[in-house]
Amino acid sequence: MAEMWITMGPQHPMTHGLWTLRVKVDGETVVDTVPELGYIHRGVEKICEARNFTQITPYCDRLCYASAMTWAQSYIYAAEDMLGAEVPERAEYIRLIAVEMQRIASHLMWLGAYCPDVGNLTVFVWCLRDRELFLDLLQELGGSRMHYNFPRVGGVKRDLPIGFAVRARAKIEMFLKRLHEYEMLLDESTIFLVRTQGVGACKAEDMINAGVTGPNVRAAGVNYDVRWAHPYSVYDQVDGVASVEKASSNEGSDCYDRYRVRMTEMIESCNMIISALDSIPGGDETHYNKKDEMIYIKPPIRAPAGQNGFHHFEDSRGESTFYLAGGGGKKGRGEFPYRMSIRSPMFITIPYVAKTMIGYKVADIPAIMGSFDPCIGETDR
Amino acid sequence: MQIISSEQNLSAVKVAVEETNKRFEEAGITAESCQHRSGRKYSFVHINCPPNHWVSLAKWLRFEQGVDYLSMITGIHFPLEFEFFSGQPGYNPGTPEKGWEVIVHLTRKGIKNPKVGEQTIINPTKLTGMDIPLEYQISLVLPQTDEPIIPSVQSIWDGADWNEKETWDLLGIEFEGHKNMMRVLNPHDSPPGFHPLQKQHKIRYHNHNEMYDDAQGFMRKPLDSDKKK
After folding, report:
1. Is A95 within 8 Å of A151 (Cβ atoms)?
2. Which residue range(s) make up the domain with A232?
3. Are the beta carbons of B114 and A220 separated by less than 8 Å?
């Protein structure tokens, strides 16, 4: 049969955000793919060359609306590395709680967006309902529902609010029960299993070589996690492990494995939050407006030329990295970064996934692409 | 969660620095152990590499040192003169020897494919030698030139492919030997030679008034600044 090119996008059923996947098909079989990105390129890296280190945080929030807290913190750790800032231990615990909540909310958004693609609309409604539980908690911390601007260089904006720990524990208890319902709904749905099992096989070594990280690699049977490999925050003080799945075939992990690993990761994140609330220094009651030095230490505000920093961070989609070079600003005195560089996990993952689709049917494209949790906001920056 | 301890990290960095210095002594490649400035203050390997030896260093890292992951390629432009605002006095970030810098972040992860139906559960506290995850930062410095060019490592790490595309797209640094170079973030019909992260492109519009050139109001004076009080 004659081969031909089809353009899927820029309006996509499988992602929130604009991008184009050009697919070369032979009948129903995918022969070649070319992704085209850049539809929502805002030039964040250039904008941040004229912003000081506090002003950059909200821009990093907006890199990915489904996972704003992880992106803001990813930047904050790199900025602290560059400026040499000290962080109080209580602030590290609050950050850990916030980022794990954001990880759960992000995975719920993924599950809610993915399941309608593969034939289960009920989960979409359920996921958005339960995501609200965690967005409410994050709103208590940051004051806003999606873009929190919560972490600061040198600490966090506010302490835990009154009654936060009580509500967090109750909501997590309820959520863990509901997660069990999700598993019953999806693991016994023939449509879901047929669409995801044996589709989109990827091997761990290939993914690492191509730059794919995070839950997608852990689905292939390796428990690699930045949180233990290049440790930051206080992950050694809390319970919880890096969740990992068994790769189900010779060719590696399939879409079903990537669904499973995110489900177990949500449970592990819940364990970490509970454990952090139990062991947070100063107790889980509020110290709001009383002892600011418990949550914030004033950092240096200038980074002269030659003072650079980078940090690898476990984002909910993989490994995000920021590199900051000092010595920017009007006279080169370092009030702004001279160069800020963002490594987005999805920018590297999308071209890799496009290549893994070759050989599968056109109908499998949304199932494969969606299982990697693409997010175009961080991809295009 | 069990994590890599600072002793493991230090021992791995020490060995990597020694081996790099021993292997590339004649080539002018120097490795040193650097420290993060915050958090746990773990160490990483910083390598200064002349661009012409970049491919041989990359091959050695990839195939003999087990550096299996390329995280990020960052290009930086250091012009001889740089005005932050149009028409205002600027400063000199660059020198004749240093006009461009390409910084490559690599990680040694040590990931192997597990057998079918099995998992590889790594216990971080028991890792030794080459299995310990390690961060590398490679600095490639280019002299002042209008056409910066360095060799491509696209064939060594697949992850370098789109990183190099992005660096060319935004910075204009050519990668010699890179196949299928194209615009990825800028519009595909952008004029040739337009690379927005080069420093001659101002943050706001060129030669515009202060409202656009100076959104932050650093140079704005109060309305009554010239009046005697």
Report:
1. yes
2. 3-37+88-294+346-380
3. yes
* Prediction pTM value: 0.89
* Helix, strand counts (H, E) of chain B: 4, 7
Instruction: Tell me the C-alpha to C-alpha distance, in Å, between residue B184 and each of A282, A373, B148, B181, B191.
Output: 48, 20, 19, 9, 14
All residues of chain A having their beta carbon less than 8 Å from the beta carbon of residue B121 are 223, 244
- Kindly list the structural domains of chain B, giving each domain's residue range(s) and its CATH number in brackets, ordered by start: 6-112+124-213 (3.30.460.80)
Which residues of A fall within a CB distance of 8 Å from B70?
A: 211
Mention every residue, 6+ apart, whose C-beta is less than 8 A from residue B63.
none
In whole angstroms, what is the distance from residue A293 CA to residue A315 CA? 28
Cβ-Cβ contacts under 8 Å for A186 (sequence gap 6 or more): A115, A120, A123, A192, A259
Which of B131, B185, B200, B202 best tests the A interface by mutation, with the highest count of A CBs <10 A? B185
d(CA A152, CA A158): 10
CA distance A303 to A73: 19
Search chain B and give the residue with CA nearest A87.
B39
**A10 cis-preceded (ω within 30 degrees of 0):** yes
How far apart CA B61 and CA B66 sit, in angstroms, is 6
Q: Are A224 and B107 in contact (CB under 8 A)?
A: no
User: CA of A288 to nearest chain B CA: how many angstroms apart?
Assistant: 24
- Structural domain includes residue A368: yes
- Dihedral in degrees, nearest 10, Cα atoms A93, A98, A104, A109: -160
What is the Cα–Cα distance from A344 to A324, expressed in whole angstroms? 15
Residues B107/B134, Cβ–Cβ less than 8 Å: yes
Taking the CA of residue A37 and the nearest CA in chain B, the distance in Å comes to 6
Answer whether residue A114 is part of any domain: yes
Angle of the A89-117 helix axis to the A122-142 helix axis, nearest 10: 160
Which one of B103, B157, B185 has the shortest CB-CB distance to A38? Answer: B185
Whether A38 and chain B come into contact, CB under 8 Å, resolves to yes
The answer to whether the beta carbons of residues A33 and A321 sit under 8 Å apart is no
pLDDT (tens digit, 0 to 9) for every residue of chain A, 381 residues total?
688 998 887 877 666 778 888 899 998 899 999 998 888 888 899 888 888 888 899 999 988 888 899 999 999 999 999 998 889 988 999 999 999 999 999 999 999 988 888 888 888 899 999 999 999 999 998 888 888 989 989 889 888 888 899 999 999 999 999 998 898 888 888 888 998 888 888 888 889 999 899 899 999 888 888 998 899 889 988 988 888 888 777 788 889 999 999 999 999 999 999 999 999 888 888 776 655 778 888 888 888 888 899 999 999 988 999 999 988 887 888 888 999 999 999 999 999 999 998 989 988 888 898 888 888 888 888
Supply the CATH number for residue A238's domain.
1.10.645.10
Number of domains in chain A: 1
